[in-house]
């Protein structure tokens, strides 16, 4: 009797200890998955220059917040024998068209890039994010940046983009097509605006855009930038803006309807105050300034795409 009482007590203590251990373990895992990646405790100034990982020619794009906890809902498809893509389709809503996404240097597997595709799908677009680095995205610990970058020739990338466009037109049978790119991919959006038969282009903080690239654009193109971007200075963005203004191709706002007076396909350059590089898709969303700018930027993207895609 005493023995059984004792063992019951021991069992209760044992169960309590086990429960406590499980709870602590769960808290640890959850905090790792959900909180650790977004806790930029070293970077509360909101400019997203992670102080551990400052931008430099060797480390060109601050690592920022990767949204590591995001669970993607799309699937992987083969564009051809060399190129795979992440594909996200609208569910329970009619399809408004296709959006081809150009990822940043961290590549198509980055949850933050796939999250953009899923968001587009939720808003009625078939979104496709091809792996333009063919399994070899930028990895700061493994590569020297310039060497890595030159290993991916623009010619090869253009070929993979063309293959993706053919895939969209044939396998997905969608006519309306817009492109959206981030950082490295923002420059690809500007190239696509010059080169591809598309309806509209959006470039989020495109890196390395020259005035000549802008003059070559053939499609309505929206350029979104952060005022406090340390990769692309606001002076550089203002130069892009004045280039388009002087070419008489700049609208006054995302919704400005006075396209008749323009000499060429319309464009608009928007600069978001108090936010840094990659604020829209990889910013610290716990920061209300960054969150608000991100929401506004994606809203602008949707307005631009729906404005310039037919039907
Ligand atoms: C962004 O840059 C402006 C102009 O230099 C400055 O006034 C502002 O404080 C900066 N904001 C942040 C969040 O660093």
UniProtKB/TrEMBL annotation:
<dbReference type="InterPro" id="IPR002925">
    <property type="entry name" value="Dienelactn_hydro"/>
</dbReference>
<feature type="region of interest" description="Disordered">
    <location>
        <begin position="45"/>
        <end position="64"/>
    </location>
</feature>
<protein>
    <recommendedName>
        <fullName>Carboxymethylenebutenolidase homolog</fullName>
    </recommendedName>
</protein>
<feature type="transmembrane region" description="Helical">
    <location>
        <begin position="12"/>
        <end position="35"/>
    </location>
</feature>
<keyword id="KW-0812">Transmembrane</keyword>
<comment type="similarity">
    <text>Belongs to the dienelactone hydrolase family.</text>
</comment>
<dbReference type="InterPro" id="IPR042946">
    <property type="entry name" value="CMBL"/>
</dbReference>
<keyword id="KW-0378">Hydrolase</keyword>
<dbReference type="Pfam" id="PF01738">
    <property type="entry name" value="DLH"/>
</dbReference>
<dbReference type="GO" id="GO:0016787">
    <property type="term" value="F:hydrolase activity"/>
</dbReference>
<keyword id="KW-0472">Membrane</keyword>
<keyword id="KW-1133">Transmembrane helix</keyword>
<feature type="domain" description="Dienelactone hydrolase">
    <location>
        <begin position="85"/>
        <end position="307"/>
    </location>
</feature>
<dbReference type="GO" id="GO:0005829">
    <property type="term" value="C:cytosol"/>
</dbReference>
<keyword id="KW-0963">Cytoplasm</keyword>
<dbReference type="InterPro" id="IPR029058">
    <property type="entry name" value="AB_hydrolase_fold"/>
</dbReference>
């Amino acid at each position: 009797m005493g023995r059984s009482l004792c063992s019951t007590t021991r069992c209760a203590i044992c169960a309590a200890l086990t429960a406590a251990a499980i709870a602590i373990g769960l808290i640890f895992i959850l905090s790792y998955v959900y909180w650790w990646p977004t806790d930029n405790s070293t970077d509360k100034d909101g400019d997203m220059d992670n102080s551990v990982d400052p931008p430099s020619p060797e480390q060109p794009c601050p690592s920022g917040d990767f949204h590591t906890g995001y669970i993607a809902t799309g699937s992987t498809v083969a564009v051809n024998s060399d190129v795979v893509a992440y594909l996200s389709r609208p569910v329970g809503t009619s399809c408004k068209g296709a959006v081809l996404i150009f990822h940043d240097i961290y590549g198509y597997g980055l949850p933050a890039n796939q999250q953009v595709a899923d968001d587009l799908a939720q808003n009625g677009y078939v979104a496709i994010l091809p792996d333009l680095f063919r399994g070899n995205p930028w990895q700061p610990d493994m590569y020297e940046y310039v060497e890595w970058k030159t290993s991916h020739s623009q010619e090869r990338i253009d070929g993979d983009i063309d293959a993706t466009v053919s895939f969209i037109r044939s396998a997905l049978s969608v006519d309306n097509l817009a492109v959206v790119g981030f950082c490295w991919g923002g420059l690809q959006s500007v190239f696509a605006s010059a080169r591809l038969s598309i309806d509209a282009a959006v470039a989020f903080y495109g890196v390395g855009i020259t005035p000549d690239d802008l003059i070559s654009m053939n499609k309505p193109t929206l350029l979104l930038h952060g005022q406090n971007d340390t990769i692309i200075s606001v002076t550089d963005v203002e130069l892009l803006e004045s280039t388009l203004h002087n070419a008489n191709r700049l609208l006054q706002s995302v919704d400005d309807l006075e396209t008749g007076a323009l000499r060429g396909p319309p464009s608009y350059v928007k600069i978001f105050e108090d936010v840094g590089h990659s604020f829209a898709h990889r910013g610290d969303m716990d920061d209300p300034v960054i969150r608000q700018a991100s929401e506004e930027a994606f809203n602008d993207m949707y307005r631009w795409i729906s404005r310039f895609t037919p039907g």
